[in-house]
Amino acid sequence: MAESLILRADARSLPLPDESVDLVVTSPPYFGLRSYRDGGEHYTGQLGAEASPSEFVDALIECTREMVRVLKPNGSVFINLGDKYSGAQGQTQTGINGRRHVSDSAATWRQTDPRRTGIPNKSLMLMPERYRIRCVDELGLIARAVIVWAKPNSLPESVTDRVRRSHEDWVHLTKQPRYYSAIDDIREPASGYARPNGAGREPRGGQKARKMLDTVNPRGRVPGSVWEIPTQPFNAPASLGVDHYAAFPMEWPRRLITGWCPPGGTVLDPFGGTGTTALVAAMLGRRGLSVDLSADYCRLATWRANDPKERARAAGTDPTKVTVPQPDQPDLFGGAA
Ligand SMILES: C[S@@+](CC[C@H](N)C(=O)[O-])C[C@H]1O[C@@H](n2cnc3c(N)ncnc32)[C@H](O)[C@@H]1O
What we know:
By secondary structure, the chain is an alpha/beta fold. The chain contains eight helices and twelve strands.
């Protein structure tokens, strides 16, 4: 089992050598959505708090340039980025012990004010699209795929004139056309089109008869571009005195690491938050690096990286069947963080 390392740093200037990372899996802050905290206060330097959409994309491109610097030539970057409606207000969040964090709705209004941004009121701001186009045009990255994250448990919305938002997406970026992948390890069960008796289609004029099963990989189909993964609330223990509302489900890093990081390789999350990516990476036999600018979130990620139940969940073991090791008991996971 590999280990994870939690680092407090700015994603604009990562304390890592060039070409040292095999895979980046990350979800940066969304524009104007949340106020991330350190010591209970909104902290400066965080992404998402820029005055305008273009300044936000500038900052995210600067961070992506840094991800590219530390990425090996045959590596991949997967980024999850959400959108925002023009003219939208901030969000209220309720955390541990019922404490409420209200993001500054006046500030959010300034960020999304159609008179300042030039984006028509009620329009999507198209942040993922603006970002992806600049990754290709300015950073010379190859946009290999956009994977839709379908959320079966998405929240209700009170709108009556458009569809409810029940998805986000992830972009897969590479530095060069050939790169590491182990797609066989994340194939989906083939269903619907394999004919169990091997019967072939009727050959059309001049075509050779072919058995259908000849064309079906016994390990299943290459995953499609829509992945249905429920969101998973993360509850930090109250004793840590820190909340985090934006952890992604472990299933995302689990699939991406299995499919695009070699065993024993290094996975980086430069906006690590609660350390989900690094935790899953370690449990999959990779080295996980989690970077966050908030000391509190680094403390939370360090706790998570060492918590037996969180480690069991990340390893895909039923957490209800895990015994927390006692001081005189050997560590279930051999002591590696
Ligand atoms: C959407 S959350 C990531 C959550 C993470 N995927 C998880 O599963 O816990 C974004 C994180 O980026 C951090 N962040 C914001 N600006 C940053 C910066 N300039 N450098 C490093 N981290 C930053 C925030 O503190 C926040 O924890």
